[in-house]
Amino acid sequence: MTKRICLPLWWMLGSSVLVAETIYAMPEHSPWPGGIAIVDVGGTDRPPPRASFQDKPLLMMSRDERWHAVVGIPLDTKSDALSIRVGNNDIAINIVPHAYREQRLTVKNKSYVTPDQTQLDRIARERKIIDGALGRFRETAAAGIELSAPVDGPRSSSFGLRRFFNEQPRSPHKGMDIAASEGTPIIAPRNGVISATGDFFFNGNTVIIDHGQGFVTLYCHLSDIAVEEGQAVNTGDVIGAVGATGRVTGPHLHFGTYLNGTAVDPAILLPRP
Ligand SMILES: [Zn+2]
After folding, report:
1. Average pLDDT over residues 96-108
2. Which protein residues have their CB within 5 A of the ion that is ligand 1?
3. Burial of 10 (0-12, 13-18, 19+ CB in 10 A)
4. What are the b/e assignments for 95-116, b being 16+ CB within 10 Å?
């Protein structure tokens, strides 16, 4: 038997208006590499269909009484179309081009640029933990993808930057850097469960939150971690503090957002500053 919770209509109306106006933005269809496609897949008078992209299940949310599959588009997408599987059908998504800038950095501690074998072994071990948490799909009820800001401060528009450390090419920047002073509290931008914490070689003190249905957020370079793996968090709970641990040039929060195991631009999910 299904349990139902009855709430007065004014309560629901009141809270949804409050959420839309004061905390969340409404993420829009952003069909470019590193963006998010939001695809209408049918009415909510039926149960949500199963949807997948490259065999990875997709998050399903309802909006205006329609189900929408939410697709993280890989940053390295080269083609102008990709297709998702919905039930027994394929749906094509047109991809529009998006230019990302280049950045050249000088890092003084050379071991961060050319790690030795012991460090490479450590990096490989940590990569497994981090990728495992970022790619996790936990079944939950359909939910939205709106986020509140994890910390206030100037945001760099550096998602997708092609980076060179001491002239050596590295993987593109897969998050947003938010400038804030050391010790500034970081809050959970949405309900979830802590899926990993650790002190990692590149990322420093790190927290990963699993928001359900493959929606995951990542916090790096923390001075302090205030949560433990397995702990449930609500929007607004403190999860740690801004710091300068790992491969950094100064204190800031590296904030990453992931859908179907793919890094997407956090700016799409956050309210406008
Ligand atoms: Zn960063």
Report:
1. 85
2. 175, 177, 254
3. exposed
4. beebebeeeeeeeeeeebbeee
Give the CA dihedral 146, 258, 74, 33, nearest 10 degrees.
30
CA 121 to ligand 1 centroid distance, Å: 22
pLDDT score of 14 more than 60 = no
* Alpha-carbon gap, residue 242 to 205, rounded angstroms: 10
231-255: pLDDT as tens digits:
999 999 999 999 999 988 899 999 9
Gap from CA of 122 to ligand 1 centroid (Å): 20
* Beta carbons within 10 angstroms of residue 158's beta carbon: 18
Evaluate if residue 219 carries a pLDDT over 70.
yes
What is the average pLDDT across 222-227? 98
The rounded Å distance from CA 77 to ligand 1 centre is: 21
Distance from C-alpha of 132 to C-alpha of 124, rounded to nearest angstrom: 12
Q: Cα(86)–Cα(83) distance, rounded to whole angstroms?
A: 10
Start and end residues for every CATH 2.70.70.10 domain found in the chain: 102-268
Pick the CATH number of 9-94 from 3.10.20.310, 2.60.40.1590, 3.40.50.300, 3.90.1170.30: 2.60.40.1590
One of 3.40.1120.10, 3.40.30.10, 2.60.120.10, 2.70.70.10 is the CATH number of 102-268, namely 2.70.70.10
Measured in angstroms, how far is the CA atom of residue 255 from the centroid of ligand 1?
7
